[in-house]
Protein backbone atom coordinates (compact mmCIF):
# COMPACT_ATOMS: atom_id res chain seq x y z
CA UNK A 1 0.00 0.00 0.00
CA UNK A 2 1.21 3.49 -0.86
CA UNK A 3 1.53 6.28 1.71
CA UNK A 4 -1.62 7.55 3.37
CA UNK A 5 -2.91 10.86 2.03
CA UNK A 6 -5.16 13.07 4.13
CA UNK A 7 -8.08 14.73 2.33
CA UNK A 8 -10.97 16.92 3.41
CA UNK A 9 -13.30 14.78 1.29
CA UNK A 10 -13.00 11.41 -0.40
CA UNK A 11 -15.85 10.76 -2.83
CA UNK A 12 -16.60 7.14 -3.70
CA UNK A 13 -18.22 6.99 -7.15
CA UNK A 14 -17.67 9.23 -10.18
CA UNK A 15 -21.26 9.51 -11.48
CA UNK A 16 -23.23 12.78 -11.74
CA UNK A 17 -23.61 12.80 -7.96
CA UNK A 18 -19.98 12.03 -7.12
CA UNK A 19 -18.13 13.90 -9.84
CA UNK A 20 -20.17 17.08 -9.39
CA UNK A 21 -19.64 16.90 -5.62
CA UNK A 22 -15.89 16.49 -6.17
CA UNK A 23 -15.72 19.50 -8.51
CA UNK A 24 -17.76 21.62 -6.10
CA UNK A 25 -15.48 20.54 -3.22
CA UNK A 26 -12.48 21.69 -5.24
CA UNK A 27 -14.18 25.01 -5.96
CA UNK A 28 -14.87 25.50 -2.25
CA UNK A 29 -11.17 25.04 -1.52
CA UNK A 30 -11.46 21.58 0.04
CA UNK A 31 -8.82 18.96 -0.73
CA UNK A 32 -10.65 16.16 -2.52
CA UNK A 33 -10.19 12.78 -4.18
CA UNK A 34 -12.73 10.88 -6.23
CA UNK A 35 -12.54 7.09 -6.47
CA UNK A 36 -14.22 5.46 -9.49
CA UNK A 37 -13.96 1.81 -10.45
CA UNK A 38 -15.46 1.61 -13.94
CA UNK A 39 -12.42 3.13 -15.66
CA UNK A 40 -14.23 6.23 -16.93
CA UNK A 41 -15.97 9.09 -15.15
CA UNK A 42 -19.65 10.04 -15.48
CA UNK A 43 -21.22 6.99 -13.86
CA UNK A 44 -24.34 5.30 -15.12
CA UNK A 45 -25.65 8.51 -16.64
CA UNK A 46 -22.81 9.26 -19.03
CA UNK A 47 -21.60 5.74 -19.74
CA UNK A 48 -24.75 3.62 -19.95
CA UNK A 49 -27.69 5.89 -19.16
CA UNK A 50 -28.90 9.41 -19.91
CA UNK A 51 -26.39 10.35 -22.58
CA UNK A 52 -26.14 7.24 -24.80
CA UNK A 53 -29.93 6.79 -24.63
CA UNK A 54 -30.51 10.38 -25.75
CA UNK A 55 -28.08 9.90 -28.66
CA UNK A 56 -30.04 6.84 -29.84
CA UNK A 57 -33.37 8.61 -29.25
CA UNK A 58 -32.20 11.51 -31.40
CA UNK A 59 -30.90 9.39 -34.29
CA UNK A 60 -33.98 7.17 -34.32
CA UNK A 61 -36.28 10.20 -34.14
CA UNK A 62 -34.55 11.85 -37.07
CA UNK A 63 -34.80 8.65 -39.09
CA UNK A 64 -38.51 8.19 -38.29
CA UNK A 65 -39.14 11.86 -39.06
CA UNK A 66 -37.41 11.62 -42.42
CA UNK A 67 -39.16 8.37 -43.29
CA UNK A 68 -42.68 9.21 -42.17
CA UNK A 69 -43.04 12.98 -41.82
CA UNK A 70 -40.77 14.83 -44.22
CA UNK A 71 -43.34 14.39 -46.97
CA UNK A 72 -45.83 16.33 -44.84
CA UNK A 73 -43.50 19.32 -45.10
CA UNK A 74 -43.12 18.94 -48.85
CA UNK A 75 -39.67 17.42 -48.62
CA UNK A 76 -38.81 14.48 -50.85
CA UNK A 77 -35.84 12.43 -49.71
CA UNK A 78 -36.30 9.24 -51.69
CA UNK A 79 -35.52 6.01 -49.91
CA UNK A 80 -34.50 6.66 -46.29
CA UNK A 81 -32.26 4.15 -44.60
CA UNK A 82 -29.92 3.96 -41.62
CA UNK A 83 -26.56 2.46 -40.80
CA UNK A 84 -26.98 1.08 -37.28
CA UNK A 85 -23.25 0.76 -36.62
CA UNK A 86 -22.80 4.42 -37.56
CA UNK A 87 -25.64 5.35 -35.20
CA UNK A 88 -23.87 3.42 -32.45
CA UNK A 89 -20.57 5.08 -33.32
CA UNK A 90 -22.05 8.58 -33.03
CA UNK A 91 -23.36 7.61 -29.59
CA UNK A 92 -19.98 6.20 -28.50
CA UNK A 93 -18.15 9.32 -29.69
CA UNK A 94 -20.50 11.57 -27.71
CA UNK A 95 -20.03 9.45 -24.57
CA UNK A 96 -16.24 9.26 -24.89
CA UNK A 97 -15.94 13.03 -25.39
CA UNK A 98 -18.03 13.80 -22.34
CA UNK A 99 -16.34 11.33 -19.98
CA UNK A 100 -12.90 12.70 -21.01
CA UNK A 101 -14.27 16.19 -20.45
CA UNK A 102 -14.87 15.41 -16.78
CA UNK A 103 -11.24 14.36 -16.38
CA UNK A 104 -10.34 17.81 -17.66
CA UNK A 105 -12.73 19.43 -15.18
CA UNK A 106 -11.13 17.38 -12.37
CA UNK A 107 -7.68 18.74 -13.27
CA UNK A 108 -9.01 22.28 -13.47
CA UNK A 109 -10.61 22.00 -10.04
CA UNK A 110 -7.74 20.09 -8.39
CA UNK A 111 -9.65 16.86 -7.82
CA UNK A 112 -7.44 13.76 -7.46
CA UNK A 113 -8.90 10.96 -9.58
CA UNK A 114 -8.22 7.41 -8.39
CA UNK A 115 -9.16 4.62 -10.77
CA UNK A 116 -10.25 1.73 -8.60
CA UNK A 117 -12.87 0.32 -6.25
CA UNK A 118 -13.22 2.00 -2.88
CA UNK A 119 -14.08 0.31 0.40
CA UNK A 120 -14.75 1.88 3.80
CA UNK A 121 -12.33 0.64 6.43
CA UNK A 122 -13.37 3.20 9.05
CA UNK A 123 -15.42 6.39 9.21
CA UNK A 124 -12.32 8.24 8.01
CA UNK A 125 -10.52 5.75 5.82
CA UNK A 126 -11.08 4.39 2.32
CA UNK A 127 -9.10 1.57 0.81
CA UNK A 128 -8.84 1.65 -2.96
CA UNK A 129 -8.21 -1.51 -4.97
CA UNK A 130 -6.65 0.18 -7.99
CA UNK A 131 -7.47 -0.99 -11.51
CA UNK A 132 -3.67 -1.19 -11.92
CA UNK A 133 -3.46 -3.76 -9.10
CA UNK A 134 -2.07 -1.38 -6.45
CA UNK A 135 -3.85 -0.78 -3.13
CA UNK A 136 -4.05 2.75 -1.72
CA UNK A 137 -5.37 3.96 1.62
CA UNK A 138 -6.86 7.42 1.82
CA UNK A 139 -7.57 9.25 5.06
CA UNK A 140 -10.42 11.72 4.97
CA UNK A 141 -12.21 14.12 7.30
CA UNK A 142 -15.39 13.22 5.45
CA UNK A 143 -16.35 10.44 3.07
CA UNK A 144 -19.11 10.85 0.49
CA UNK A 145 -20.81 7.68 -0.77
CA UNK A 146 -22.03 8.21 -4.35
CA UNK A 147 -22.02 4.65 -5.62
CA UNK A 148 -25.31 4.91 -7.52
CA UNK A 149 -27.55 2.08 -8.61
CA UNK A 150 -27.75 -1.07 -10.69
CA UNK A 151 -30.43 -2.90 -12.66
CA UNK A 152 -33.07 -4.71 -10.59
CA UNK A 153 -33.05 -8.32 -11.81
CA UNK A 154 -36.28 -10.16 -12.59
CA UNK A 155 -36.34 -13.66 -11.10
CA UNK A 156 -36.71 -16.31 -13.80
CA UNK A 157 -35.52 -14.00 -16.57
CA UNK A 158 -31.69 -14.10 -16.44
CA UNK A 159 -29.94 -11.23 -18.22
CA UNK A 160 -27.19 -12.22 -20.68
CA UNK A 161 -26.90 -8.71 -22.23
CA UNK A 162 -27.28 -10.14 -25.75
CA UNK A 163 -30.74 -11.68 -26.03
CA UNK A 164 -32.16 -10.86 -22.61
CA UNK A 165 -30.76 -7.42 -21.94
CA UNK A 166 -30.81 -4.66 -19.36
CA UNK A 167 -30.65 -1.05 -20.54
CA UNK A 168 -26.88 -1.49 -20.83
CA UNK A 169 -27.25 -4.29 -23.39
CA UNK A 170 -30.11 -2.48 -25.11
CA UNK A 171 -27.84 0.53 -25.69
CA UNK A 172 -25.20 -1.67 -27.33
CA UNK A 173 -27.16 -4.08 -29.57
CA UNK A 174 -25.29 -4.97 -32.76
CA UNK A 175 -28.43 -4.98 -34.87
CA UNK A 176 -32.05 -3.92 -34.65
CA UNK A 177 -34.21 -6.85 -33.52
CA UNK A 178 -37.25 -7.81 -35.58
CA UNK A 179 -39.35 -8.42 -32.49
CA UNK A 180 -38.62 -6.98 -29.07
CA UNK A 181 -40.39 -7.41 -25.75
CA UNK A 182 -39.88 -4.76 -23.11
CA UNK A 183 -40.69 -5.74 -19.51
CA UNK A 184 -41.77 -2.64 -17.56
CA UNK A 185 -43.47 0.48 -19.00
CA UNK A 186 -41.28 2.93 -17.08
CA UNK A 187 -38.72 5.46 -18.24
CA UNK A 188 -36.20 3.00 -19.65
CA UNK A 189 -38.79 0.73 -21.26
CA UNK A 190 -40.56 3.55 -23.08
CA UNK A 191 -37.40 5.37 -24.14
CA UNK A 192 -35.53 2.29 -25.39
CA UNK A 193 -38.76 0.77 -26.73
CA UNK A 194 -39.26 3.95 -28.78
CA UNK A 195 -35.73 3.78 -30.16
CA UNK A 196 -36.16 0.29 -31.57
CA UNK A 197 -39.77 0.75 -32.65
CA UNK A 198 -38.69 3.77 -34.74
CA UNK A 199 -35.87 1.74 -36.28
CA UNK A 200 -38.34 -0.92 -37.41
CA UNK A 201 -38.70 -3.43 -34.57
CA UNK A 202 -42.13 -4.66 -33.51
CA UNK A 203 -42.07 -3.70 -29.84
CA UNK A 204 -44.44 -5.08 -27.18
CA UNK A 205 -44.29 -3.57 -23.71
CA UNK A 206 -45.43 -5.83 -20.86
CA UNK A 207 -46.42 -3.94 -17.72
CA UNK A 208 -47.41 -5.34 -14.35
CA UNK A 209 -49.72 -2.45 -13.41
CA UNK A 210 -52.81 -1.14 -15.22
CA UNK A 211 -50.99 2.07 -16.21
CA UNK A 212 -47.75 3.07 -17.84
CA UNK A 213 -45.33 5.28 -15.83
CA UNK A 214 -47.30 5.30 -12.58
CA UNK A 215 -45.68 8.52 -11.33
CA UNK A 216 -47.10 10.69 -14.15
CA UNK A 217 -50.30 12.75 -13.87
CA UNK A 218 -53.12 10.34 -14.75
CA UNK A 219 -54.61 12.44 -17.55
CA UNK A 220 -51.27 13.18 -19.19
CA UNK A 221 -50.24 9.57 -18.83
CA UNK A 222 -53.39 8.38 -20.64
CA UNK A 223 -52.76 10.80 -23.53
CA UNK A 224 -49.13 9.63 -23.62
CA UNK A 225 -50.18 5.98 -23.70
CA UNK A 226 -52.49 6.66 -26.68
CA UNK A 227 -49.74 8.55 -28.47
CA UNK A 228 -47.27 5.68 -28.08
CA UNK A 229 -49.86 3.20 -29.34
CA UNK A 230 -50.51 5.38 -32.38
CA UNK A 231 -46.79 5.25 -33.15
CA UNK A 232 -46.95 1.45 -33.20
CA UNK A 233 -45.85 0.37 -29.74
CA UNK A 234 -48.00 -2.48 -28.42
CA UNK A 235 -48.87 -2.86 -24.75
CA UNK A 236 -49.84 -5.80 -22.57
CA UNK A 237 -51.02 -4.24 -19.33
CA UNK A 238 -51.63 -5.91 -15.96
CA UNK A 239 -49.36 -8.74 -17.03
CA UNK A 240 -46.25 -10.25 -15.48
CA UNK A 241 -43.43 -12.22 -17.01
CA UNK A 242 -42.65 -15.29 -14.94
CA UNK A 243 -39.98 -16.95 -17.06
CA UNK A 244 -37.61 -16.16 -19.90
CA UNK A 245 -35.10 -18.38 -21.64
CA UNK A 246 -33.11 -18.37 -24.84
CA UNK A 247 -33.89 -21.31 -27.14
CA UNK A 248 -32.18 -21.51 -30.55
CA UNK A 249 -31.42 -17.81 -30.53
CA UNK A 250 -35.01 -16.76 -29.73
CA UNK A 251 -36.28 -15.59 -26.36
CA UNK A 252 -39.23 -17.60 -25.07
CA UNK A 253 -41.26 -15.85 -22.39
CA UNK A 254 -44.00 -17.06 -20.06
CA UNK A 255 -46.59 -14.43 -19.18
CA UNK A 256 -49.38 -14.41 -16.61
CA UNK A 257 -52.13 -11.94 -15.77
CA UNK A 258 -50.91 -9.88 -12.78
CA UNK A 259 -53.94 -10.94 -10.76
CA UNK A 260 -53.43 -14.63 -11.58
CA UNK A 261 -54.90 -16.77 -14.34
CA UNK A 262 -53.87 -18.83 -17.32
CA UNK A 263 -50.27 -18.50 -18.50
CA UNK A 264 -49.45 -17.71 -22.12
CA UNK A 265 -46.19 -17.69 -24.03
CA UNK A 266 -44.55 -15.16 -26.26
CA UNK A 267 -41.40 -15.10 -28.38
CA UNK A 268 -39.04 -12.38 -29.48
CA UNK A 269 -35.50 -11.75 -30.68
CA UNK A 270 -34.51 -9.47 -27.81
CA UNK A 271 -36.13 -8.94 -24.43
CA UNK A 272 -35.37 -5.83 -22.36
CA UNK A 273 -35.75 -6.11 -18.59
CA UNK A 274 -36.52 -2.61 -17.27
CA UNK A 275 -38.43 -3.00 -14.04
CA UNK A 276 -36.45 -0.48 -12.03
CA UNK A 277 -33.05 0.07 -10.46
CA UNK A 278 -31.73 -0.62 -6.97
CA UNK A 279 -28.99 0.97 -4.88
CA UNK A 280 -25.47 -0.33 -5.47
CA UNK A 281 -23.31 -0.87 -2.37
CA UNK A 282 -21.60 -4.16 -3.15
CA UNK A 283 -18.07 -4.42 -1.75
CA UNK A 284 -18.35 -0.98 -0.18
CA UNK A 285 -17.84 -2.29 3.35
CA UNK A 286 -20.80 -0.45 4.87
CA UNK A 287 -21.12 -3.20 7.47
CA UNK A 288 -17.45 -2.72 8.50
CA UNK A 289 -18.18 0.76 9.79
CA UNK A 290 -21.86 0.53 10.71
CA UNK A 291 -23.44 2.63 7.93
CA UNK A 292 -27.13 1.71 8.07
CA UNK A 293 -29.28 0.83 5.06
CA UNK A 294 -33.08 0.51 4.87
CA UNK A 295 -35.14 -2.54 3.88
CA UNK A 296 -34.57 -1.72 0.18
CA UNK A 297 -30.80 -1.48 0.57
CA UNK A 298 -30.75 2.33 0.34
CA UNK A 299 -28.23 4.16 2.52
CA UNK A 300 -30.12 5.98 5.26
CA UNK A 301 -29.38 9.69 5.60
CA UNK A 302 -30.68 12.62 7.61
CA UNK A 303 -31.73 15.95 6.06
CA UNK A 304 -28.03 16.88 5.85
CA UNK A 305 -27.01 13.79 3.84
CA UNK A 306 -25.33 12.33 6.95
CA UNK A 307 -25.42 8.55 7.37
CA UNK A 308 -25.51 6.75 10.72
CA UNK A 309 -21.74 7.39 10.86
CA UNK A 310 -21.33 11.18 11.26
CA UNK A 311 -18.24 11.57 9.05
CA UNK A 312 -19.84 9.58 6.21
CA UNK A 313 -22.35 11.22 3.86
CA UNK A 314 -24.35 9.74 0.96
CA UNK A 315 -26.13 11.15 -2.11
CA UNK A 316 -27.74 10.26 -5.44
CA UNK A 317 -29.26 6.95 -6.53
CA UNK A 318 -27.89 5.12 -3.47
CA UNK A 319 -30.14 7.09 -1.07
CA UNK A 320 -33.97 7.32 -0.98
CA UNK A 321 -35.56 9.70 -3.52
CA UNK A 322 -35.95 9.92 -7.28
CA UNK A 323 -33.18 8.18 -9.23
CA UNK A 324 -32.34 11.07 -11.52
CA UNK A 325 -28.99 12.51 -12.60
CA UNK A 326 -29.93 16.14 -11.91
CA UNK A 327 -31.20 15.20 -8.44
CA UNK A 328 -27.90 13.39 -7.72
CA UNK A 329 -26.01 16.53 -8.82
CA UNK A 330 -28.05 18.79 -6.52
CA UNK A 331 -27.48 16.35 -3.66
CA UNK A 332 -23.73 16.37 -4.34
CA UNK A 333 -23.41 20.14 -4.29
CA UNK A 334 -25.51 20.51 -1.14
CA UNK A 335 -23.68 17.73 0.74
CA UNK A 336 -20.27 19.25 0.01
CA UNK A 337 -21.48 22.73 0.95
CA UNK A 338 -22.60 21.32 4.30
CA UNK A 339 -19.17 19.70 4.82
CA UNK A 340 -17.61 23.10 4.12
CA UNK A 341 -19.75 24.65 6.86
CA UNK A 342 -22.24 26.25 4.46
CA UNK A 343 -25.99 25.77 4.16
CA UNK A 344 -26.50 23.32 1.31
CA UNK A 345 -30.13 22.42 0.67
CA UNK A 346 -32.17 20.68 -2.04
CA UNK A 347 -35.85 21.43 -2.65
CA UNK A 348 -37.12 18.02 -3.75
CA UNK A 349 -40.54 19.50 -4.49
CA UNK A 350 -39.16 21.21 -7.59
CA UNK A 351 -37.09 18.41 -9.17
CA UNK A 352 -38.39 17.98 -12.73
CA UNK A 353 -38.81 14.59 -14.37
CA UNK A 354 -38.69 14.11 -18.10
CA UNK A 355 -39.34 11.16 -20.39
CA UNK A 356 -37.42 11.75 -23.63
CA UNK A 357 -39.77 10.00 -26.01
CA UNK A 358 -41.62 11.81 -28.80
CA UNK A 359 -43.67 13.59 -27.66
CA UNK A 360 -41.64 14.20 -24.51
CA UNK A 361 -43.43 14.18 -21.18
CA UNK A 362 -42.15 16.51 -18.47
CA UNK A 363 -43.48 17.40 -15.09
CA UNK A 364 -42.62 19.28 -11.95
CA UNK A 365 -44.44 19.48 -8.66
CA UNK A 366 -47.59 17.59 -7.78
CA UNK A 367 -49.93 15.68 -10.04
CA UNK A 368 -53.62 16.54 -9.68
CA UNK A 369 -54.24 13.36 -7.64
CA UNK A 370 -51.22 14.00 -5.41
CA UNK A 371 -52.37 17.55 -4.69
CA UNK A 372 -55.84 16.33 -3.78
CA UNK A 373 -54.31 13.57 -1.66
CA UNK A 374 -52.37 16.22 0.27
CA UNK A 375 -55.60 18.01 1.09
CA UNK A 376 -55.51 20.80 -1.51
CA UNK A 377 -58.67 21.96 -3.15
CA UNK A 378 -57.35 22.30 -6.68
CA UNK A 379 -58.13 24.08 -9.91
CA UNK A 380 -56.76 22.82 -13.16
CA UNK A 381 -55.97 24.62 -16.41
CA UNK A 382 -55.34 22.70 -19.60
CA UNK A 383 -54.29 23.69 -23.08
CA UNK A 384 -53.87 21.32 -26.04
CA UNK A 385 -51.00 21.80 -28.48
CA UNK A 386 -53.58 21.51 -31.29
CA UNK A 387 -54.52 25.09 -30.37
CA UNK A 388 -50.91 26.35 -30.19
CA UNK A 389 -49.79 28.25 -33.28
CA UNK A 390 -46.17 27.07 -33.25
CA UNK A 391 -47.14 23.42 -32.87
CA UNK A 392 -49.55 23.87 -35.79
CA UNK A 393 -46.94 25.67 -37.90
CA UNK A 394 -44.46 22.84 -37.50
CA UNK A 395 -47.08 20.09 -37.67
CA UNK A 396 -46.25 18.56 -34.29
CA UNK A 397 -49.44 18.93 -32.28
CA UNK A 398 -49.73 15.79 -30.17
CA UNK A 399 -49.63 17.07 -26.60
CA UNK A 400 -50.96 19.33 -23.89
CA UNK A 401 -50.05 21.44 -20.91
CA UNK A 402 -51.79 20.95 -17.57
CA UNK A 403 -51.40 23.40 -14.71
CA UNK A 404 -52.50 22.42 -11.20
CA UNK A 405 -52.99 25.25 -8.70
CA UNK A 406 -54.52 25.70 -5.26
CA UNK A 407 -58.15 26.77 -5.63
CA UNK A 408 -58.13 29.30 -2.82
CA UNK A 409 -54.70 30.89 -3.12
CA UNK A 410 -53.90 30.29 -6.83
CA UNK A 411 -50.48 29.01 -5.72
CA UNK A 412 -48.90 26.84 -8.36
CA UNK A 413 -48.72 23.17 -7.29
CA UNK A 414 -47.63 21.32 -10.40
CA UNK A 415 -47.16 21.56 -14.16
CA UNK A 416 -47.34 18.66 -16.60
CA UNK A 417 -46.37 18.95 -20.23
CA UNK A 418 -46.59 16.47 -23.08
CA UNK A 419 -45.21 17.65 -26.38
CA UNK A 420 -42.11 18.21 -28.49
CA UNK A 421 -39.50 19.97 -26.32
CA UNK A 422 -41.49 19.44 -23.12
CA UNK A 423 -38.18 18.68 -21.39
CA UNK A 424 -36.91 22.18 -22.18
CA UNK A 425 -40.26 23.90 -21.55
CA UNK A 426 -40.71 22.50 -18.04
CA UNK A 427 -38.04 24.71 -16.51
CA UNK A 428 -40.08 27.91 -16.42
CA UNK A 429 -42.54 25.93 -14.30
CA UNK A 430 -39.72 24.63 -12.08
CA UNK A 431 -38.50 28.19 -11.56
CA UNK A 432 -42.04 29.41 -10.88
CA UNK A 433 -42.56 26.68 -8.28
CA UNK A 434 -39.19 27.44 -6.70
CA UNK A 435 -40.19 31.11 -6.37
CA UNK A 436 -43.60 30.17 -4.93
CA UNK A 437 -45.44 31.66 -7.91
CA UNK A 438 -49.18 31.64 -8.50
CA UNK A 439 -50.78 30.42 -11.72
CA UNK A 440 -51.59 34.07 -12.44
CA UNK A 441 -47.87 34.94 -12.26
CA UNK A 442 -47.23 32.62 -15.22
CA UNK A 443 -50.41 33.77 -16.99
CA UNK A 444 -49.28 37.43 -16.75
CA UNK A 445 -45.71 36.77 -17.86
CA UNK A 446 -45.22 37.77 -21.49
CA UNK A 447 -44.24 34.69 -23.52
CA UNK A 448 -42.61 34.96 -26.94
CA UNK A 449 -44.76 34.25 -29.97
CA UNK A 450 -44.99 31.86 -31.68
CA UNK A 451 -43.59 29.36 -29.19
CA UNK A 452 -44.71 26.11 -27.63
CA UNK A 453 -44.15 27.82 -24.28
CA UNK A 454 -47.22 29.95 -24.93
CA UNK A 455 -49.20 26.80 -24.19
CA UNK A 456 -47.84 26.97 -20.62
CA UNK A 457 -49.10 30.55 -20.32
CA UNK A 458 -52.48 29.57 -21.80
CA UNK A 459 -52.88 26.63 -19.39
CA UNK A 460 -52.00 29.00 -16.51
CA UNK A 461 -54.64 31.45 -17.80
CA UNK A 462 -57.15 28.62 -17.84
CA UNK A 463 -56.20 27.66 -14.26
CA UNK A 464 -56.21 31.18 -12.91
CA UNK A 465 -59.06 32.87 -14.83
CA UNK A 466 -61.02 29.83 -15.95
CA UNK A 467 -60.39 30.70 -19.60
CA UNK A 468 -57.49 30.50 -22.04
CA UNK A 469 -57.41 33.04 -24.88
CA UNK A 470 -57.01 30.68 -27.82
CA UNK A 471 -59.54 28.03 -26.75
P1 LIG B 1 -24.19 6.51 -10.83
O1 LIG B 1 -24.33 7.34 -12.03
O2 LIG B 1 -24.71 5.14 -10.86
O3 LIG B 1 -22.64 6.50 -10.50
C1 LIG B 1 -22.08 5.73 -9.50
C2 LIG B 1 -20.66 5.38 -9.88
O4 LIG B 1 -20.02 4.83 -8.75
C3 LIG B 1 -20.54 4.34 -10.97
O5 LIG B 1 -19.77 4.83 -12.04
C4 LIG B 1 -19.88 3.14 -10.30
O6 LIG B 1 -18.96 2.48 -11.16
C5 LIG B 1 -19.16 3.80 -9.17
N1 LIG B 1 -18.94 2.94 -8.00
C6 LIG B 1 -19.85 2.17 -7.35
N2 LIG B 1 -19.30 1.56 -6.30
C7 LIG B 1 -18.02 1.97 -6.27
C8 LIG B 1 -16.91 1.69 -5.39
N3 LIG B 1 -17.04 0.90 -4.34
N4 LIG B 1 -15.72 2.27 -5.66
C9 LIG B 1 -15.58 3.09 -6.75
N5 LIG B 1 -16.57 3.38 -7.59
C10 LIG B 1 -17.77 2.84 -7.35
N6 LIG B 1 -31.49 10.21 -15.28
C11 LIG B 1 -31.85 11.43 -15.71
O7 LIG B 1 -31.93 12.36 -14.91
N7 LIG B 1 -32.13 11.65 -17.03
C12 LIG B 1 -32.06 10.67 -17.95
O8 LIG B 1 -32.31 10.92 -19.12
C13 LIG B 1 -31.70 9.38 -17.52
N8 LIG B 1 -31.62 8.38 -18.40
C14 LIG B 1 -31.23 7.14 -17.98
C15 LIG B 1 -31.17 6.12 -18.90
C16 LIG B 1 -30.77 4.85 -18.52
C17 LIG B 1 -30.70 3.76 -19.53
C18 LIG B 1 -30.43 4.62 -17.15
C19 LIG B 1 -29.96 3.26 -16.70
C20 LIG B 1 -30.49 5.63 -16.21
C21 LIG B 1 -30.91 6.90 -16.63
N9 LIG B 1 -31.01 7.95 -15.72
C22 LIG B 1 -31.40 9.19 -16.15
C23 LIG B 1 -30.70 7.79 -14.29
C24 LIG B 1 -29.29 8.32 -13.98
O9 LIG B 1 -28.36 7.62 -14.77
C25 LIG B 1 -28.98 8.16 -12.51
O10 LIG B 1 -29.98 8.76 -11.72
C26 LIG B 1 -27.64 8.80 -12.16
O11 LIG B 1 -26.61 8.26 -12.93
C27 LIG B 1 -27.34 8.65 -10.67
O12 LIG B 1 -26.12 9.23 -10.37
P2 LIG B 1 -25.21 8.71 -9.18
O13 LIG B 1 -23.99 9.55 -9.23
O14 LIG B 1 -25.99 8.65 -7.94
O15 LIG B 1 -24.84 7.21 -9.54
P1 LIG C 1 -39.17 2.55 -13.63
O1 LIG C 1 -39.32 2.48 -12.17
O2 LIG C 1 -39.23 3.85 -14.31
O3 LIG C 1 -40.28 1.64 -14.32
C1 LIG C 1 -40.41 0.29 -14.04
C2 LIG C 1 -41.75 -0.20 -14.53
O4 LIG C 1 -41.73 -1.61 -14.48
C3 LIG C 1 -42.91 0.27 -13.69
O5 LIG C 1 -43.93 0.74 -14.51
C4 LIG C 1 -43.31 -0.98 -12.91
O6 LIG C 1 -44.68 -1.01 -12.60
C5 LIG C 1 -42.94 -2.06 -13.90
N1 LIG C 1 -42.67 -3.36 -13.30
C6 LIG C 1 -42.07 -3.65 -12.12
N2 LIG C 1 -41.98 -4.98 -11.96
C7 LIG C 1 -42.51 -5.55 -13.05
C8 LIG C 1 -42.68 -6.90 -13.49
N3 LIG C 1 -42.26 -7.91 -12.75
N4 LIG C 1 -43.27 -7.11 -14.68
C9 LIG C 1 -43.69 -6.09 -15.46
N5 LIG C 1 -43.55 -4.80 -15.10
C10 LIG C 1 -42.95 -4.53 -13.92
O7 LIG C 1 -37.79 1.78 -13.92
P2 LIG C 1 -36.85 1.73 -15.22
O8 LIG C 1 -37.61 2.08 -16.44
O9 LIG C 1 -36.13 0.44 -15.16
O10 LIG C 1 -35.83 2.89 -14.94
C11 LIG C 1 -35.09 2.93 -13.73
C12 LIG C 1 -34.88 4.34 -13.30
O11 LIG C 1 -33.90 4.97 -14.09
C13 LIG C 1 -36.12 5.22 -13.46
O12 LIG C 1 -37.02 5.09 -12.40
C14 LIG C 1 -35.50 6.57 -13.46
O13 LIG C 1 -35.26 6.96 -12.14
C15 LIG C 1 -34.20 6.35 -14.19
N6 LIG C 1 -34.34 6.73 -15.60
C16 LIG C 1 -34.67 8.02 -15.89
C17 LIG C 1 -34.84 8.43 -17.17
C18 LIG C 1 -35.21 9.82 -17.44
O14 LIG C 1 -35.15 10.63 -16.54
N7 LIG C 1 -35.59 10.17 -18.66
C19 LIG C 1 -34.64 7.53 -18.30
C20 LIG C 1 -34.31 6.19 -17.89
C21 LIG C 1 -34.16 5.84 -16.59
List the keywords.
Pyr_OxRdtase_I_AS, dihydrolipoyl dehydrogenase (NADH) activity, five-stranded parallel beta sheet, binds 1,4-dihydronicotinamide adenine dinucleotide, binds flavin-adenine dinucleotide, 21 strands, 32% helix, alpha/beta, five-stranded mixed β-barrel, 471 residues
Quick structural gist:
The chain has about 475 residues and is α/β, with parallel strands linked by helices.
Please provide a written account of the structure.
There is one protein chain. With 471 residues, the protein is of the alpha/beta class. The protein is built from 14 helices and 21 strands. It has helices at 16-27, 43-48, 50-69, 84-108, 167-170, 187-198, 218-231, 286-289, 325-339, 368-373, 389-393, 422-434, 439-443, 454-465; strands at 2-12, 32-36, 111-122, 125-130, 135-145, 149-151, 164-165, 179-183, 202-206, 234-236, 239-247, 250-257, 264-268, 270-273, 277-279, 312-314, 353-355, 360-365, 378-384, 400-406, 412-419. It has a five-stranded mixed β-barrel with strand order 1-2-3-4-5. A five-stranded parallel sheet has the order 7-14-8-9-10. Helix 1 links the parallel strand 1 (2-12) and strand 2 (32-36). It is globular. Bound molecules: flavin-adenine dinucleotide and 1,4-dihydronicotinamide adenine dinucleotide (NAI). It catalyses: N(6)-[(R)-dihydrolipoyl]-L-lysyl-[protein] + NAD(+) = N(6)-[(R)-lipoyl]-L-lysyl-[protein] + NADH + H(+).
Amino acid sequence: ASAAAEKDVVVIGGGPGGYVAAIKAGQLGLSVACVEGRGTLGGTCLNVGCIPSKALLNSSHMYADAKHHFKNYGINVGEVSYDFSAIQKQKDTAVAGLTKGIEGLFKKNKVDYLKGWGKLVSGNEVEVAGLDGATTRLRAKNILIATGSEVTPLPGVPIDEEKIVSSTGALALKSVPREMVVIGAGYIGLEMGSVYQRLGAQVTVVEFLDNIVPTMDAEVRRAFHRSLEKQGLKFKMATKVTKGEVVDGRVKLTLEPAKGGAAESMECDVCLVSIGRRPFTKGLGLENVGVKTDSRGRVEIDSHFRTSVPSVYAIGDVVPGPMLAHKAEEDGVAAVEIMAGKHGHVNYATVPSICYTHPEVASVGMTEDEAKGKGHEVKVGKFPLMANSRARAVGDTDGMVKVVADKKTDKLLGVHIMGPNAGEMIHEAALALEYGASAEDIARTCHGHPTLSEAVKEAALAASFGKAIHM
